[in-house]
What does this fold into?
Amino acid sequence: MGQVMSCRTTYEHGLFSAVQFGDLKTVETLMETDPTMIHQSTLYNRNSALHIAAANGQIEIVTLLLERSVNPDLVNRNKQTPLMMAAMHGNISCVEKLIQAGANILKFDSLNGRTCLHYAAYYGHSDCLEAILTEARTSHVALSWGFARFVNIRDGKGATPLHLAARQRRPDCVHILLDSGALVCASTGGYSFPGSTPLHLAARGGSLDCISELLAWGADRLQRDSSGRIPYLVALKHKHRQCAALLNPTSAEPMVWPSPLKFISELNQEAKNILEKALMEINREREKSILKGVAYSVPSPSQSDAGTDDDISEVSDASLCCICFDQVCTIEVQDCGHQMCAHCTLALCCHNKPNPTTACLTAPVCPFCRSTIAQLVVIKIEVENSTDSKELASSNPKRSKRFRNCSEGSSSFKNLSAVGSFGRMGTRGSGRIAAENDCVDKA
It folds into this structure.
């Protein structure tokens, strides 16, 4: 009897070791010898072979086990599923395979009441996070729970995935979650200090990148936790001086994305990327000034760096923004067809501080004709293939580079004040109508 048990234990140990190190032939041999072994688990943590394969990124063995009808939602001693283990260790191929096999993304563990989304956010695996969110958008979760509810799902201590990503200094995950509708000012329950927002937790962790992302999405620097502390005080307590400088209520406020329901989330990805680059550049200039201890003020185009005037003179007057007279037009308003640069588009659509009591879902209006903006268009610069055009481009490399940057969706947004730009609107006629465009559905 004892010998039989000892032999079985040896076989099981051999199976789990083979699974851990990806020895596919040994796993197949052992399963043929005793098919019931695939349903065994380790002695203490009660991890199945599928848990071990998912945690170690052994995609071939994960595939083999799933093909042998192993339940993708098996749980170990802590109620963790193989999908949680794969998300924890950042094994994207295993995450995708388990989701494809029907793994439940709404399972909660018994340690902290966390889902696979919490694990991906906590450990900073942005690819796994995106895969899980994609599944949530297209699966029954969106219908039964609602996608927004899933993105803001709380663990046993009241922490959302955004709280965990901010605390663990995961700026990529913070960005993905905010872009998916995570609540930027949500307060925790018992996690960390009660009442902490993601901004409090980012201040505690000392991540400048996370703080910048949160501020750009409208995080409130004056919101207090249950102890009455604002994020600025949290950063000071943990000796994160640079973070404290950005969070100081007396420093200049950053430019903030419009409310997702109002504007930005309804743009297609190309237009959104252009505006996002502009906004982040504007805020980076602000941060540099604050961190240098210099009062923040954006210079006017006339005070720009040397060489800027030369660049402007080389760009066709028909391509300059009629609001700031400094940047190349990259965005067109539909249906009227007026053009402006990405920076001025942001100044039109963004606000410094969201106010839920006065929030309005009315779409912004064109600054030239005051008609409602139904769509935004990313302007395509047509490249001529004629010999004359090529000779002109080779003889004028600065102009060629400027147009190439525009067509790639990037432009220099420094040294331009949004407020000052709109103050000069009356100095010149209305915007131009584009000949070539690419529609971006805003509705």
Remarks:
- The chain has 22 helices and four strands.
